[in-house]
Design brief:
Layout (H helix, E strand, L loop, with lengths): L11 H7 L3 E3 L5 E3 H12 L6 E7 L2 E4 L7 E5 L2 E11 L13 E4 L2 E2 L3 E7 L2 E4 L7 E5 L2 E12 L16 E4 L2 E3 L2 E7 L2 E4 L7 E19 L13 E4 L2 E3 L2 E7 L2 E4 L7 E18 L2
Parallel strand pairs: 3-9, 4-10, 5-11, 6-12, 7-13, 8-14, 9-15, 10-16, 11-17, 12-17, 13-18, 14-19, 15-20, 16-21, 17-22
Antiparallel strand pairs: 1-2
Helix pairs in contact: 1-2
Length: 281
């Protein structure tokens, strides 16, 4: 589900090769700007996305996608990646009739892994941008993900009777790289993005990742006989940062994982996650 944020003009790689300038990347390795850009183009064409397992049961489910890669290399370019997910729904519907809850099970892989299970009325999964390795040299990388869900139901029009699910379960897998396992069971569940790269190297450039989530429920009715069960998480095996969250309440927020990875800020590295929940009930 990862999306490419690079749009290179035809012949740009060849021009960069002709004007190659040597830069030191890491551990004494010497790479030219032209070769680095060419390698970045090759990496863009390979299936290097991390693994994402998402299961959501509810009325408004928003999955804003996975943009994580095993290796992200940017040399001398400015890359903007803006993703906006918006859903507005004034209708009143019951929960899914299967009532088996949400279950996300991790697998085995090399890249970043996210397992998120959400059972509620408004479920937002606002994107994973946790590359295993990010290398940025004399360039700029801007990663912005925005998720918005609104449910402007009218007073007295949205009571739920007899809606019972088995809750949410997230089971971690086995992988190399950051792993996030999140289970949320409630009325408004927000998972606001993981940006925990295992290694980020920025040389004379900027790496900026920002995730914003907003859930607004303007109904003024009571919760009725709604029951979402329990939330449970079983950790997996990961080399790199791992975060496990189980939340059971009306408003659950996981506002981004800054992680315990290694940053080499020879340039600028910033990460920001903003979560907002509004409920009129």
């Amino acid at each position: 589900m990862g999306q490419r944020g690079r749009h290179a003009a035809p012949g740009a790689g060849a021009q960069k090769v002709r004007r190659a300038v040597a830069v030191v990347l890491a551990a004494g390795a010497l790479t030219s700007v032209g070769a680095g850009a060419a390698l970045a183009d090759v990496l863009d064409d390979l299936p290097l996305n991390g693994e994402q397992n998402i299961d959501q049961e509810g009325q408004q489910n928003l999955d804003c996608g996975n943009s994580a890669r095993i290796v992200r290399l940017n040399v001398g370019e400015t890359v903007h990646h803006d993703r906006f997910c918006v859903e507005r729904d004034g209708r009143t519907r019951h929960l899914s009739g299967r009532h088996h809850g949400a279950l996300a099970e991790g697998g085995s892989g090399l890249g970043p892994q996210v397992n998120a299970a959400q059972a509620g009325e408004q479920n937002l999964y606002c994107g994973n941008s946790a590359d295993l390795i990010t290398v940025n040299v004399t360039g700029d990388v801007y990663w912005n993900t925005t998720c918005v869900v609104t449910d402007p139901r009218h007073p007295g029009g949205g009571r739920r009777h007899g809606a019972h699910t088995e809750g949410a379960r997230a089971v971690g897998g086995t992988n190399v790289g950051p792993q996030v396992n999140t289970a949320q069971s409630g009325r408004q569940n927000l998972y606001c993005g993981n940006s925990a790269d295992t290694l980020t190297l920025s040389v004379a450039g900027t790496v900026s990742k920002r995730t914003t989530c907003t859930a607004a429920q303007h109904s003024s009715h009571g919760p009725g006989d709604t029951h979402f069960g329990r939330a449970s998480v079983r950790p997996g095996d990961a080399v790199g940062p791992e975060t496990n969250d189980a939340q059971n309440g009306r408003q659950n927020q996981t506002c981004g994982n800054p992680g315990t990875g290694l940053d080499v800020p020879l340039g600028q590295i910033t990460r920001q996650a903003n979560c907002t929940v509004h409920a009129g009930a």
